[in-house]
Records
---
Amino acid sequence: MRRLEGQVAVVTGGGSGIGRATAVMLAAEGARVVVAGRRMAPLEAVAAEIERAGGKAAARRADLSKAAEAVALARFAQERFGRVDILVNNAGHSSRVRHIRWVGLEEWEQVMGVNLTGVFALTQAVLPGMIERGAGTIVTVSSVAALRPGLIGGAPYGAAKAAVRNLMGHVHATLRDKGIRATTIMPAEVDTPILDNRPLVPDARARATMMQPEDVAQAVLLCVTLPQRTVIEEMVMSPTIARDMSADIAAASRLGEPSGHGDSPSGARRARRSRRRAERTWRSPERSEEASVSEPERNFTLLDGGRPVEVPARVEGGALRLSPQAVEALGWRLEPEGLCREGLCVPVPAGAALATPDGIALEALAALLDRPLALDLEEGAAYLGASAADRAGALASLEAPDFTLPDLHGRLHSLAEHRGKKVFLVAYASW
């Protein structure tokens, strides 16, 4: 006998991603499933997929930001299948703008409506039947943003997911003696359509390291198939491989910022010019007399693989030398095997004018790595291009390599955001 035979489950956000995977898995274990969401076509596709596999399912359109539609969804499930034994609150919505300074009230209310108000209304609507039967399981998909707020999740999303975690804690504390189980699952990055709303949409390489919808669905299945005497109160899930998210954070920090704001890129450029006038120099006992007449240290924005890093550097005869601190910030270190980063070591030819106690010559580094280098000494910017292998792969596939660059407003754009579309790129130089 299948583990959920005779039970009825409601899965919100069931048309794609985690919701679709969860609905299919629950149905495979014998549950009759109601899939709900905003768009009817994908919901009907999931319901049809379940029925083709021999299960029973129904699709119901519901805008869960509206409490009345959440209540109507619970009534529909009860009328269609007679009861609700399992509720999976999975529907989610995030704001495009993430920074608390730039989020509008309308965006805030939309995120709160779907992620919090809808969960409250739907949970409240299914509770009477569960209490009457003395059993029921409510699983709510929150987020690690509830635990670690920041720009990746954004202010509205993180606040809503923290609130819904607290709400499930309340259900658990007050109704466990009635046989009601309440679980909060808090996944980190999952490769679902909600990522398409990110200020910097992850590319295929980034998505490959993330958890997949089926991974979270397996966690939901575990929670609902345990003996009724056992409850998993909270579960935190993360990808095994942690990816560099500095570019994502940089993009999120600027999106929504009014043009001409004091913290805008133009303001940052003025600040860099001010720093150029500062009389700070490196203090190294090994400095040569030649180095002592070079320009003072100032900060440069270095784009390495699309990742912007602020690094201290010094201009010497029209060339750029990175400080030891900058080399460390970029993840490089000089070892006996050569120049090393992330387990990769590039041999340094004997006599190469690469490294001194004062740091590393950026031009020599780029040449050693066979990566093109673009410098704008006036604006304090440098860009390391793709490696020879990446360039060769692009020529072989006739597909441009992914890269990330800021626009005039400082917002980062990745070529991967437009994959599958025709893109017209215009490059120009202000000089």
---
Amino acid sequence: MFVDTAKVFIQAGKGGDGAVSFRHEIYVDKGGPDGGDGGRGGDVIFHATKNLNTLLDFRYKPELKAAPGKNGAKQNKRGRSGEPLIVKVPMGTVVKRGNDIIADLVGDDEEVVIAHGGDGGFGNAHFKSSTRQAPKIAELGEPGETFEAELELKLLADVGLVGFPNAGKSTFLSVVSNARPEIADYAFTTLSPNLGVATIDKFNLLIADIPGLIEGASEGKGLGDAFLRHVERTSVLLHLVDAYSNDIAADYKTIRDELAAYSNELTGRPEVVALTKTEGLDDEMIGMQVDEIKKVAGHERIFAISSTAHKGLNEVLRELKMQVETARAKATEETDSEDDGIHRITLSDDQKAQAWTVKRVEEENRPVFVVRGHKIEKFARRTNFEGYENINRLRDIMKKMGITHELKRAGAEGDSIIRIGRAEFTLVEQ
């Protein structure tokens, strides 16, 4: 069964908690801290493979969870890191988080970390200093990234077959390639995309047969809306038009309009047109139909073929070969020219992590000061708010980062509520 969309819940592993522990040795009255750090949580990793061609497995396994890290232990023992969860997906899988694309796996054996595991918390041995000989501070492990993701499979192919239902796409693919799609004399025989490899002059063409389009396909009518995404990856479009159409120019234009409505980019995609089922027509009739298409197509790449009679197929394949080679060369050229020599000033990853903001909001007739920023929120997530020493450490970090100064400028006082992520506490210990 072909499935090209799925929704999954992704959860990377939580980091292990740091330990609070002190050495207990004979003849040693007060041993020093020896609480170890927690292990890091496991990542969720997607691994693209050419051996899969559907997202069906995710319909039965909608939750992907990596293992958590182990807690730290006494004698400075660090907790074991959680095992990563490696998930195999088909080549061409797009991973979306909300409206953002976070991964696009197009190469065989390509791997991408989809969700990062949480860092392990520091044990109290980490906080020993000349002024703090017996710290009772230990951090919590940081939660792993957790979110719902939408998976989309966009087939990777050189050529995309488009056209009305029963235009002869499946028959063409079965004749020129190793594919064996279902073929019948009625519309919508093809209910899912089919892939086949055609060889011409020792050149392989990967061809995708897209289910037939109808007017309104870009808006969800018929089957087109569900499968038009597979056309986006193709280098060249092979537009098949039934030679027995009563208005062949209108049929051609309808499909072109639907492609444009789905994506403006598709209108600039190289196109080859093939007039199908010509075995029962004389040359005069074929010529008339070809001329009608030329009037609206705007190019001369129009061929008359018969898949059942094996007529004109090599000519079409050679034209497709030339168009694919040109498209590949253009793509390589565009990649090489991406560096335009313009110097752009951007923040480094470290600068972005250090950045923070303070915002005052009114809630229930009281001011609440909301602090946001990657680094400070991370410290807050790792703070155990059940111990006053842990909270005071967070206050010290805020002071060193300049956050406390900005809070006071915004009107915060000692008993003011400070919110960082889900944590709330006062500016000064009460």
---
Amino acid sequence: MTTSRISGFYNLTIEERRAKLADASLLSPLELAPWTTGGLSAESADHMIENVVGMHSLPVGIGLNFLVNGRDVLVPFVVEEPSVVAGASFMAKLVRAGGGFHATTTAPLMIGQMQLINLINVEEAKMKIYEHKAELLAIADEIDPILKKFGGGARDLEVRVIEDSPIGAFIVIHLIYDVRDAMGANAVNTACEKLAPQIEAITGGKIHLKILSNLADRRIARVRATIPVNELTMAADNFDGEAVRDGIIAAYAFAASDPYRAATHNKGIMNGVDAVVLATGNDWRAIEAGAHAYAARSGKYTSLSTWGKDKDGNLVGTLEMPMAVGIVGGATKVHPAAQTAVKLMGVKTANELAQIIVSVGLAQNMAALRALATEGIQRGHMSLHARQVAIAAGASGELIEKVAAQMVAEKVVRIDRAEELVKEYTGK
């Protein structure tokens, strides 16, 4: 990778962008081909899910300017929403001036849950499980020899008593499992199933549910970014850097205090996160579930990110969230386009991927807050959305931009107005 800064990238044709991408990332035309063709055959798709009838395409865009832990990264986004790629790329450019994104991750620990019911004495059962903890961990550790070879395996066993439930008291056993560079669902679920009869024999109870938890709060990704206050100046709109900074902080305070605002605030974070998760063939529904559960871990749903200023008055943003992603197994290894995405970013471990994803999430969050705190969110969306509406109304070629520009000028971006303009310009 030479640099993630490619000047004028948005002005190039699609073919020119692919050529620039190949030059910057050292990807071959063959490696880029999956993003040209869609990357997945009908035969392959038929083996991935049930009742396959075809494929559904989404745009792949490239996030530019990202500097994560001192390394330039070109980031693939798979998303349908306008302004996401542009917004994150521009914020990444501002963050570069402050040294880029500084990201860390915890060990790749996942939680497998086993629900133990039909107990005569839950406290006695709890103690018996702990007495056999070493034995149970040894069994779980041998489930996946390949994972163990790479340093993964069972790490701990925790026992919780659920006192107040609709069925009375029961026990939940947490198996803490190091899944290395995998997302880990298959390994953890298999380990839980293997332990179930052992635990039943020890306690006299019945293991009911045994499944991975998507609240992956032992597998956390964190990122910090500092943006020099002078980089925040928006001279064309008469906003100085201090005003933009304070507007972003005030917008964050709203999300931190109010769950109605926090839901949309965090959705903005996930606009970036999900786009990269999807591009790499990972389970974006699992990431979404974990993120929102983590945002409510205090008992109140709140912001996943924080925004403030340092002693020099610079804007400082942080983001912390569960990030259970993998680079081995699943769709990441089956889907050629996902393989291209991973290759483009140059990631060698799941932790590296998690660090990039959480950096994108913070960048996208900043883009949304900056827009809200200054010119308003619609201005950034308007032109791109207008193009989509123009196409939907039947515009093509140069007419798309003509119709879109007129709707933006009128501040009326609706399908009925687009249809009127198409008829007016074409005479049909």
---
Amino acid sequence: MSGIGLKLRRIGLLAVSALAFLQPPAHAQLTIEITGAGANRIPVAIADFGGEASASRVVTSVVRGDLERSGVFKMIDTGGVAMTETSNPAYPEWKSRGADALAAGSIGSSDDGRQEARFRLYDVNKQAVLGGSAFVTSKAMLRAAGHRIADMIYEKLTGEPGVFSTRVAYVLRVSAVRYELHISDADGQNAQVALISKEPIISPSWSPDGGRLAYVSFENKKPVVYVHSLASGKRVVIANFKGSNSAPAWSPDGRKLAVVLSKDGGSQIFTVNADGSGAQRLTNSNAIDTEPNFSPDGQFVYFTSDRGGSPQIYRVGVGGGEAQRVSFEGSYNVTPRLSPDGKSMAFISRRDGGFRLSVMDLASRQVQVLTDSHKDESPTFSPNGRMILIATEMGGRGVLSAVSIDGRIKQRLSITAGDVREPAWGPFNK
């Protein structure tokens, strides 16, 4: 069976049993393992932060962990040296350790009883301050403060925004009769359960503002598309037409969603307003059209179709019209996902009998296969466009894998509590 048919069949298995935001046990946290790193990593030292000891340890650990897992940095051993943002760096000593950059900071108490995180970043070779910041936080938000500092360091040293403060949604298969929709920090920690189901959950999709998740459930014994507000826990029905309702994807402005409906017979792509009104048919074919994804400029919807005899990727204007074929290399290409800058397209292609993550430069049409696994699915870009997160299989278990767009940096994310599937990387925090 084709990937299209399999996806549609899985939709019919859904049966939601509960909806809540619950803190799962510790064993349900994602564990990240680095399996590949960049060729030219930046050597950086993160001194032990000063200030209140327990808070400083948390922040220091998060900053170091974020930068190391990125695969972009080579972490320099600090030898337990503690520094604050007001310390005078011993530049020759740090240079002898091999550091090109040095960060130091502290966690202190503000006048109103809250905590304040401060840090400063130094260029060791030029013996100069590169930047720094100070902001109010709290004990409950210390990890978030660490992610924020790591984002600032990443951007200052690479010229691109960091994604450590973003979130990831994914589905955890705990058992044959328990599936959970999780939302975690980008490092896999602080996971919370948004949805509990007796049957599989598929197709989570983040709104552009990061405040809502669209997904498919089967509470009424049929697939229905919902939008779930993460702040309130409330949700609304977006698509509940006759037949199948599936594969929600947000428009860049958050006003519409593309969905796959079979209300008129075969599976075709429609757009609906974010409140579920105004359904408009976008594709017209006798084939299965599925897996829509808006281009970042909102002008096109990319999708998978077998209208040419085998699953391939097409695009159509948001106003409808003639669909244009996009993929030509190989006989099986599915699940198009556009990079945030609109220059690249991630997708799953069949190669040597396996299903592998590939990326296409849309200007040149050049295709690069990024993985050597055999059961890749559900690609999703990081909001800075540098990494692609997928679901795959390792040792008979479902895991997540992240790979850079050049294929050099690789991570594996797994949970001992079950199989992990259906990832969706959230946007930058607004």
